Amino acid sequence: MIQVERMIFMKLRSTFAVIDREIYRKNIRLIQHQIGKDTGLILVLKDNAYGLGATELARVGMQEGVSCYAVANLYEALELRKLDSDIRIIVLGYINEDARTIALQYDIDVVVWTKELALSYQQLGFSSGKQARIHIKVDTGLSRLGFLPNEESLAVLEEISKMEHLTIVSTFSHFACTETDDDDFSRGQLSTFLTFVDSMKKRGIQPGFIHMADSAGIVKFPESHLDFVRCGALAMGSMTGTDVVKSSEQYPTEEIISLYSQVARVQDFPKGTSIGYDGTYFADHDIRVVTVPMGYGDGLSGELSNSMQVIINGKKAKSVGAFCMDMAMFDATGIDCKEGDTVTILGQDGNEKVSLHDWTKLCTSSSTFLQSMLRNKIPKEYK
User: Fold this and answer.
1) Which of 154, 265, 277, 354 suits a disulfide with 291, CB 3.0-4.6 Å?
2) Where are the alpha helices (DSSP H) in the chain?
3) Spatial contact of 194 and 161, defined as CB atoms under 8 Å apart
4) Any idea which of 66-70, 225-229, 361-365 has the lowest mean pLDDT?
5) Which of 261, 280, 283 shows the shortest CA–CA distance to 272?
6) 70 and 169 in contact (C-beta within 8 Å)?
7) Does 210 have pLDDT greater than 50?
8) What pairing do the DSSP bridges indicate for beta strands 257-262 and 16-19?
9) What's the confidence (pLDDT) of residue 235?
């Protein structure tokens, strides 16, 4: 049985996560070694590091010499800025007009994908006497944000490059299909991006450093390791789909999250008993049901109902019945257990293991989506 040191918060909640900073450190070192000294690493910590705690993981990154971080919004950027005044922090998403002056005030890098955004930062730079550090986003196929790779965009970027209070730090794009088998589409995106960057240079537009690869791109397309790569899921050990096989061969990173709860109730029921809401499960055998105090309100995806497994005293128990908001039931037939016993939801107990990758096999969601769903109300212990 897993023995986990209990902290004070365990008196308040029986469900908690353990985030292993040393495994994260090991993963970062492995990635740095594999991409080589000529390629820099941007650690992506958006959505509070996919739910695992951006501040704690950024501290590890800084100890390993990582000086550039990417987040989703300005709030996240300001939280990281409290750690260090010198690290580069890039807000990948939209910053509303009223908040842009705060980005400049705290030396936060911003992304530009329209002339209007560039003009806004140019004006703020002029009025504040500061340089706005901008990153040019190019839309090569994700159809989300970015300048389209055409002549019209080149003309706009030529104007932007001459704005006195803007400094173009980098130019980048984002893969759309690296977690699928459509490698041709991804290679086409990379080719389009590099051609556009070359066109920028021919127009006298200095692109700064260039980057394209996300976690899956790092694994699948070494040719996309340009000046920098952007890495989130790979450093957390939570790769998905076809990438997992290649990851295990070239980038054998490990998951840094373990998730535990406790047995709240053990009850035997006869064959034919209905378990959970909506009659989604009727026992086809005499069954021992264990109730665990974690449910969809904590972030368990409903897609995993009646399929995912947990580990109780070294043996796996399968979900039975639809998840409740704060509870879930599991088939513990043949397992000797009692109230208060540890339940391993993610992690290893004895010879058995449950991973985020196991969850992705049971539903249509990615590992990063499933991990991000785990709510902040789940206490986290960092070791």
Assistant:
1) 265
2) 21-35, 46-50, 54-63, 74-81, 100-105, 115-128, 151-161, 183-202, 215-220, 233-236, 243-250, 356-360, 367-373
3) no
4) 361-365
5) 283
6) no
7) yes
8) antiparallel
9) 95
CATH level 2 (architecture), domain 257-382: Beta Barrel (2.40)
Tokens of 79: 């939280």
Residue 1 is assigned to a ligand binding site = no
8-state DSSP, 317: E
State residue 248's pLDDT score.
Answer: 63
pLDDT band at 24 (very low <50, low <70, confident <90, very high): very high
pLDDT at 8: 52
144 assigned to a ligand binding site? yes
CB-based contact 15:380 (threshold 8 Å)? no
Which residues does 355 contact at the CB level (< 8 Å), separation at least 6?
A: 255, 346
Strands 352-354 and 342-349: antiparallel
| Amino acid identity for residue 370 in this structure | L
- List the CATH code of the domain at 21-250: 3.20.20.10
* Contact (Cβ atoms closer than 8 angstroms) between residue 159 and residue 117: no
Every domain of the chain and the residues it spans: 21-250, 257-382
Q: Length of the chain, please?
A: 383
Q: How much is the mean pLDDT over the chain?
A: 92
Confidence of residue 255 (pLDDT cuts 50, 70, 90): very high
CA distances from 244 to 9, 179, 196, 227, 263 (A): 34, 10, 31, 24, 32
